[in-house]
Design brief:
Elements lengths: L1 H4 L4 H10 L10 H6 L8 H12 L9 E4 L5 H13 L6 E4 L11 H12 L14 E9 L2 E9 L5 E8 L4 H19 L4 H8 L8 E3 L2 E3 L2 H15 L10 H7 L18 E4 L2 E4 L5 E3 L1
Parallel strand pairs: 1-2
Antiparallel strand pairs: 3-4, 4-5, 6-7, 8-9, 9-10
Helix pairs in contact: 4-5, 8-9
C-alpha cells in the first residue's frame, strides 16, 4: 500500500521495523494507520472484547492472547480476567511484552535488547553425575593427620569430583576438608580449569604445616591442591613416582613427616623430638 500510495522509502520501512507499529511514524496517512493496527496498538480490554465476540457464537472455548505492554501491573491483569468472566469468555491468556527472553512478537528494538542480553554472563549449570565413574585415592600427609583425597573423572577423562576424608574423623579440619571437596567438585562439574582451582588452594597455611616427599604441605587446602595437581599431571600415578594409591601400600613407602609451628591446643612453640612434635607448654604431642 505504501508503494501504491507513493510514500514508500527504505528509511520509512526501517523505522516501522524498529518501532513495530505505524503509530507515531511520520509520513503515514491516518487512514493507513487505522487499517494496519497491531496487537500492541489496541488496549488489553479490546483484546478481551474481540475474544468475547467470537466466544458468543462458539460452543468450545476460544483462545486468544491478551497482549500487555512491558509496564503492565498486576491490577491490569486482574481487570482483564474479571472482564473476560463478565463477558462470558471460557478462558483467557495474558502475556506481558518482554517477560521472556524470546517471544513471537518482536521488533527491531526488542531484537537489539535480546542481543545485549546474550552478551551478559550466563549462569553455569553443573553437569549431572553419572551412576558410575572412576578415579583414584591419594594419601596426603598434613599437619592435621592423614588426608585421603579421592579424585574421580568422567567417561571423557575430565576431572569430575573430589572427596576428602581425614584419618581422624570429625573435628574442624575434617569438616573444612569436606567443604573444600564439595566446592572443588562443583567447580569440576562446571568446567572450571583445574589449574585455576589449584592456584586458589595452593599455599594456604595453617598452624601446623608438614613436609612430605621433600616438599612442604602448608595445610589441608594446600594438600588438596597438590593432589589435584599430581592427578592432572600423572593420572593414577598420584605420588609422582609412578605409584598410585595401591602401589604405595604394596611397596610400603612411608613419607617422613616433620612438624613445626604453633601448638593446636595452646598456641605454644612445637619442637621436634624423637620423630614426634612436642609442645613443652601443655604437653601436646603428635607422633608418626
Amino acid at each position: 500500500m505504501a508503494r501504491e500510495r507513493g510514500f514508500w522509502s527504505r528509511e520509512l520501512i526501517e523505522e516501522i521495523a524498529e518501532k513495530g507499529t505505524l503509530h507515531g511514524v511520520a509520513n503515514v496517512p491516518d487512514d493507513v494507520r487505522n487499517i494496519f493496527t497491531t496487537a500492541h496498538d489496541i488496549t488489553p480490554e479490546d483484546h478481551v472484547r474481540m475474544q468475547a465476540a467470537f466466544q458468543k457464537h462458539v460452543d468450545n472455548a476460544v483462545s486468544k492472547t491478551v497482549n500487555f505492554p512491558n509496564n503492565a501491573t498486576q491490577k491490569d491483569v486482574e481487570n482483564v480476567y474479571l472482564l473476560a468472566y463478565t463477558l462470558g469468555c471460557k478462558g483467557v491468556t495474558v502475556y506481558r511484552d518482554g517477560s521472556r527472553e524470546e517471544q513471537v512478537l518482536s521488533t527491531g528494538k526488542t531484537a537489539g535488547t535480546d542481543e545485549k542480553k546474550s552478551d551478559s554472563p550466563q549462569k553455569i549449570v553443573p553437569k549431572k553425575r553419572p551412576e558410575t565413574i572412576y578415579g583414584t585415592t591419594t594419601l596426603m600427609n598434613t599437619g592435621c593427620g592423614n588426608l585421603y583425597v579421592t579424585i574421580n573423572e568422567d567417561h571423557n577423562g575430565n576431572l569430575f569430583e573430589l572427596f576428602t576424608r581425614m584419618g581422624k574423623a570429625g573435628g574442624c579440619a575434617s569438616s573444612q576438608a569436606e567443604a573444600i571437596g564439595r566446592l572443588v567438585s562443583l567447580a569440576f562439574r562446571s568446567n572450571i580449569d583445574s589449574h585455576e582451582i589449584v592456584k586458589q588452594l595452593r599455599g594456604i597455611s595453617c598452624h601446623s604445616p608438614a613436609w612430605a616427599n621433600g616438599g612442604k604441605i602448608s595445610s589441608c587446602s594446600d594438600a588438596i591442591s597438590k593432589a589435584i595437581e599430581r592427578y592432572a599431571e600423572h593420572g593414577d600415578k598420584a605420588d609422582g613416582n609412578g605409584n598410585g594409591s595401591h602401589g604405595r601400600e604394596k611397596k610400603g613407602i612411608k613419607e617422613k613427616i616433620i612438624f613445626c609451628g604453633a601448638c593446636p591446643d595452646c598456641g605454644g612453640a612445637v619442637e621436634h623430638e624423637g620423630g614426634c612434635a612436642v609442645c613443652r607448654d601443655c604437653g601436646f604431642t603428635k607422633c608418626y
